[in-house]
Amino acid sequence: MNISTYTITPQAPYRFDFFRERIVTSSNSYLYDIGDQHLGRAHLIDGHHVFVRVSCPNQGSDAPEFHLHVEGAPDEAVAEKAMRLWRHMLSLDRPLYPFYAKMSGDPVLCGIIDQLSGLNLLLEADPFESMILSIIGQQVNLTFAENLKRALVELCGTRIELNGRSVYAFPTPEQIARLQYEDLRPLKYSQRKAEYIIDFARGVVNGEIDLAALEQMDNDEAIATLVKLRGIGRWTAECVLLFGLGRPDLLPAADIGLRNAIQHFYGLDHQPTEPEVRERATAWAGYESYVTYYLWTALGLAKAQAKKQKSTGN
DNA sequence: GGCCAGGCTAGCA
DNA sequence: TGCTAGCATGGC
C-alpha cells in the first residue's frame, strides 16, 4: 500500500487533543477512526478512496508535532489534496494569537481562553457535507442527530476496508440524490427532513446549486443565497459558513446554544435576544466564529462538569 | 408526562 | 408581515 507522510508543526498554541475530544463528544464521531493518539477518516478525492490518519504522540502539548499519513492515493497529487483537506479541517493555517490579542479586554472571554488555550476550529470536509449534517442537526438533540447521520452514511456512503479497518466515506451528492424520500423514513427521518436533504443533493448534482460559488461571496451574500433553498434557514446557512467554509467572522446570533452560553458566562438574568447578541458581538468583530466556538465549547464543558458532580453526589 | 433540543415551513390572520 | 402548529425522537 502506498502511504504518503507529512510532518506538521502548527503555530503554538495548538492543542491536537482538543480536536479528539471534540469529535468524541460530537454527533459526527462515527465518521472517524479514533485512537488514543490519532484520528482517521476516509475521503473520496478525485474518484479515489483514500484514508487519512493523523497521529500525534505529544497531543497534550500546546506546541505539538504530528504526522499525517495518506493511504490509498494513486499519486502524489491526490495525496497532497488529502493533506490540504486536513489542513483545512484542522484549521492549521489560522494562528490563534490574533484572536486572543483581540479579546484581551474581556475578562469573561479571557477566562475561557485560559481554559481552552490552543483550541482551534474543527471544520467539516466540504460545504456539501456541512450542509447535509447541518440540515440533519436542525432542532433535534445531539444523540438523535448522530443516529440520523450515521444511518444516512451507512445507507449510501461507500464502505472502505483498509488494513482491517472498516470506515465509511461521506456520501457524495450523487449517492444522496439517487435516494427516494421513503428510503429515509424507516431511518426515523421526518418526511420534510428527507425531502430537504435529497432535494439539496439533487440540486447540487443537476447544477442548480453552485457550492463553489459560495467561496467568492461575503457572508451576507452567501447566507442570502442559501436561505432561498427549501429547508435551509438562517441558522443552517450560518452553520455551513462557519463549519463548512471556515469563515472566522460568522455570528449565529439567534442560535440557542450561543445565547445560553452568553447568559451563563456573563451572568445575565435572562437569555439575550438576537439583537442583544449582535450588540455584544460588535466587540468581537473579525472573530465572531471563534468566540461562538469557544462559548459553545466552554458551556458544553460546564454542563458535563455539572452532570458529573450531580452523578457523584458532590 | 411535558417541555425543550445548536430550526424550518406552510398556513393562517 | 407576523404568528404558530407540526414535524420525529431523545433527554431531562
From TrEMBL:
> Which InterPro entries would you find in this protein's record?
AlkA_N_sf (IPR037046), Alkylbase_DNA_Glycosylase/TA (IPR051912), DNA_glycosylase (IPR011257), HhH-GPD_domain (IPR003265), HhH_base_excis_C (IPR023170)
Report any one BP term from Gene Ontology: base-excision repair, AP site formation
Known catalytic reactions: Hydrolysis of alkylated DNA, releasing 3-methyladenine, 3-methylguanine, 7-methylguanine and 7-methyladenine
Q: Any idea which UniProt keywords this protein has? A: DNA damage, DNA repair
Q: What is its EC number?
A: 3.2.2.21
HhH-GPD domain segment(s) = 136-304
Look at the named UniProt entry and state the broad enzyme category this protein falls under: hydrolase
Q: Name one Pfam family in it.
A: HhH-GPD
Q: Give an example GO molecular function.
A: alkylated DNA binding
Might you report a single GO cellular component term? cytoplasm
Q: Which family does it belong to?
A: Belongs to the alkylbase DNA glycosidase AlkA family.
Q: What is this protein called?
A: DNA-3-methyladenine glycosylase II
Q: Which organism is it from?
A: Tumebacillus permanentifrigoris
